[in-house]
């Protein structure tokens, strides 16, 4: 029985950082899931027999069933499940299309929950689930309202899942980083560079997430800046935080 890790969003910056961490673990192969077949092939060429590329658009319910079908076919021992795929957009709520709203909720909320249910029957004691939430889940965030609301769901879902799976010896960790230096971030607005306070490299987030997962933590908070952010969200009125946040970000959406 092969010992595997399942990683969604494998071809992005954070996905690649998780691959580097997973290669250090006692697993036979990484099921790398992504939409871009060329980028998946690049990963496969680079890591050879350590990567099993799975081209899949997780926004499609039918395509997502590929994961379930492969699990039923191979019956692996799933050591790690990392739900890293996600969608983010900085804009005013009224500017989102119906398709954008549906797809964001689908990818950020529904898909991780479904894949957890696919994978858990193939997980044994010591297995680990990491769901990539966000520091934006700590409080309401104007101009990334849809994204942060989906991450509230994922953080709450993951922490509850961790409680339910304790008797099986399986841990679930909600990974809550702040700004991560990836291609998902908007780099410029009207010719001006966008500033992201407390931004961290992907490698740091992945390393901390894996470390906290091994400790059985139900939440992983990366960087001192984000830890203070978490504390502020508990101590300060949320209207204050929304005002500060909204004022700092509004110039990037007008």
TrEMBL record:
Pfam families: adh_short. PANTHER family: 3-OXOACYL-(ACYL-CARRIER-PROTEIN) REDUCTASE, 3-OXOACYL-[ACYL-CARRIER-PROTEIN] REDUCTASE FABG. It comes from Anaeroplasma bactoclasticum. Belongs to the short-chain dehydrogenases/reductases (SDR) family. SUPFAM superfamilies: NAD(P)-binding Rossmann-fold domains. InterPro entries: NAD(P)-bd_dom_sf, SDR, SDR_fam. This is Short-subunit dehydrogenase. The lineage of its organism: Bacteria, Bacillati, Mycoplasmatota, Mollicutes, Anaeroplasmatales.
């Amino acid at each position: 029985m092969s010992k595997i890790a399942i990683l969604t969003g494998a071809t992005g910056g954070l996905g690649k950082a998780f691959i580097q961490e997973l290669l250090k673990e006692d697993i036979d192969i990484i099921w790398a899931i992504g939409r871009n077949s060329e980028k998946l092939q690049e990963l496969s060429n680079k890591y050879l027999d350590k990567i099993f590329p799975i081209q899949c658009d997780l926004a499609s319910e039918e395509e997502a069933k590929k994961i379930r079908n492969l699990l039923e076919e191979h019956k692996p021992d799933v050591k790690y499940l990392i739900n890293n795929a996600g969608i983010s957009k900085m804009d005013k709520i009224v500017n989102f299309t119906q398709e954008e709203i549906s797809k964001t909720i689908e990818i950020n909320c529904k898909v991780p929950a479904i894949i957890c249910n696919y994978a858990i029957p193939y997980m044994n004691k010591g297995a680990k689930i990491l769901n990539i939430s966000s520091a934006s889940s700590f409080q309401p965030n104007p101009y990334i309202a849809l994204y942060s609301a989906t991450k509230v769901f994922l953080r709450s879902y993951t922490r509850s899942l961790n409680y339910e799976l304790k008797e099986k010896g399986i841990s679930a960790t909600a990974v809550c980083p702040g700004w991560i230096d990836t291609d998902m971030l908007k780099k410029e607005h009207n010719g001006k560079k966008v500033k992201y306070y407390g931004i961290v490299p992907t490698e740091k987030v992945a390393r901390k997430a894996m470390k906290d997962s091994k400790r059985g933590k139900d939440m992983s908070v990366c960087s001192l800046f984000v830890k203070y952010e978490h504390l502020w969200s508990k101590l300060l009125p949320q209207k204050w935080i929304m005002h500060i946040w909204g004022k700092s970000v509004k110039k990037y959406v007008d």
